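Support request from a user on the community tier.

User writes: "When I paste my structure tokens into the form, the page sometimes reloads and wipes my input. The last time it worked, I copied everything first. Here is what I submitted, just in case something in the input itself triggers the reload:"
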């Protein structure tokens, strides 16, 4: 439910009560305090009602899922791209929690934002998981989730004690990242703070057999935590965990897909005069700025254009119809 289009849909629903209740002119009203209090109360009530209504739409969709008729749910008609829900979302309660922290209802000039809604959805998911009993598996993205973009998970990161606590409770932890390496040392370099903390917890007898995996390269490389392995990570051969659908993909088609993508990236670099180097791996291809004096970073718009052009070229290609792929701005 957290893709950009679906968040923007909820954002649009909240725009109406913001316009009706925001009262930006209250700053000039002699009854300012009373007016602002009423504005906040009214906005909070309407926002919460909308979140409740969306929550009910999701519950209805889940009921349709259990009957195999999810295509007939009202939510599916309103948001055709909506997929499967594995848990209910406690949106009304989550909104009240986030509103108390972010003062969404108190704002008169800034409407509910993308981040407001994303955090509300995240809180709703966590609340639902906790209410439904113990959590078997928690997965995290790396960049811009556990650590800043392009950085590493270092020992002082406050998320590490929380992950260790989840491991003590028997929860399995997965780090799912686009970073694709065949060498465990590369993942240790990015995640050493967490891996060292898990190893120390084992040494101190705080953990016995923690389940930690790293799934990298858009689900192409799997490593699992091993206290005795180099870099505390052991490579898991692809053939032991691939889905049946993945087994049907032919290596020739995969390389043909990468050939098309590489050509598209080269074309974009020429057309936009990007000083770019092509990086080709066995399951990925991308561009990075040419290193050296006067190195120029790509701007967001150039990268977005490159992604969309490459996506379209791959969609129309023959290998793009045979092998699933992901084109993205990392």
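"...and here is what came back when it finally went through:"
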């Amino acid at each position: 439910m957290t893709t950009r289009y679906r968040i923007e849909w909820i954002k649009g629903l909240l725009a109406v009560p913001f316009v009706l209740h925001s009262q930006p002119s209250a700053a000039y009203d002699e009854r300012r305090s009373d007016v602002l209090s009423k504005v906040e109360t009214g906005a909070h009530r309407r926002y919460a009602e909308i979140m409740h209504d969306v929550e009910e739409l999701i519950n209805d969709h889940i009921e349709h899922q259990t009957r195999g008729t999810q295509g007939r749910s009202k939510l599916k008609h309103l948001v055709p791209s909506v997929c499967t829900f594995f848990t209910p979302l406690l949106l009304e309660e989550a909104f009240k929690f986030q509103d108390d922290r972010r003062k969404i209802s108190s704002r008169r000039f800034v409407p509910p934002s993308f981040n407001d809604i994303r955090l509300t959805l995240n809180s709703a998911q966590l609340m639902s998981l906790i209410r439904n009993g113990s959590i078997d598996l928690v997965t995290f993205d790396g960049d811009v989730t556990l650590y800043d973009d392009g950085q590493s998970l270092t020992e002082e990161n406050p998320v590490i004690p929380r992950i260790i606590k989840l491991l003590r409770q028997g929860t399995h932890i997965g780090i799912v990242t686009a970073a694709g390496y065949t060498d465990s040392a590369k993942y240790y370099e990015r995640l050493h703070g967490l891996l060292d903390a898990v190893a120390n917890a084992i040494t101190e007898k705080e953990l016995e057999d923690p389940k930690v995996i790293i799934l990298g390269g858009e689900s192409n490389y799997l490593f699992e935590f091993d206290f005795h392995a180099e870099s505390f990570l052991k490579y898991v051969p692809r053939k032991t965990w691939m889905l049946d659908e993945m087994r049907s993909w032919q290596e020739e088609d995969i390389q043909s897909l990468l050939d098309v993508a590489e050509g598209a990236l080269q074309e974009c670099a020429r057309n936009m005069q990007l000083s770019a180097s092509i990086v080709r791996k066995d399951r990925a291809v991308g561009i990075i700025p040419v290193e050296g004096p006067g190195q120029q970073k790509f701007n967001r718009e150039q990268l977005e254009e490159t992604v969309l052009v490459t996506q379209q070229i791959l969609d129309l290609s023959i290998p793009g119809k045979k092998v699933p792929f992901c084109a993205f701005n990392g």
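Agent notes: The reload is a front-end session timeout and is unrelated to the input. The longest strand covers residues 172-176. The CA atoms of residues 170 and 321 lie 41 Å apart. Escalated to web team.
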